[in-house]
């Protein structure tokens, strides 16, 4: 597993749909962003299977859109994007 994604623990599923599954997670180690445990930064982790029939562009394109919007109010910050096994992952 990629060392970056290993810094987070999945806590619960938020939902799933045609474009993958989204979970709530928290930092478990590494970095200095608001500690670890219950004080740790809460994030959304999106997992989209590479064989997904919904959209060929998937999270890589979604990440580009978030970055282009550049921290506008209500737009999530992408901390990580990459591949884990058969999934594209975005945190």
From TrEMBL:
Domain of life, per UniProt, equals Eukaryota
Keyword Repeat in record: no
Please provide the record's keywords in A-Z order. ATP-binding, Nucleotide-binding
Q: Which InterPro entries match?
A: Kinase-like_dom_sf, Protein_kinase_ATP_BS
Q: Which GO terms describe its molecular function?
A: ATP binding
UniProt entry tagged with the keyword Nucleotide-binding: yes
Q: Which residues bind ATP?
A: 46
Under which name does UniProt file this protein?
Protein kinase domain-containing protein
In its UniProt entry, the species of origin is given as Gossypium darwinii
What taxonomic ancestry is recorded? Eukaryota, Viridiplantae, Streptophyta, Embryophyta, Tracheophyta
């Amino acid at each position: 597993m990629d060392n970056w994604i290993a810094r987070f623990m999945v806590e619960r599923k938020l939902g799933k749909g045609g474009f993958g599954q989204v979970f709530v997670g928290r930092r478990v180690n590494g970095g200095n962003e608001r500690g670890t445990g219950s004080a740790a930064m809460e994030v959304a982790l999106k997992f989209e299977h590479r064989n997904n029939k919904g959209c060929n562009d998937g999270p890589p394109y979604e990440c580009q859109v978030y970055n282009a919007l550049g921290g506008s109010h209500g737009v999530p910050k992408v901390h990580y994007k990459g591949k884990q096994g058969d999934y594209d992952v975005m945190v």
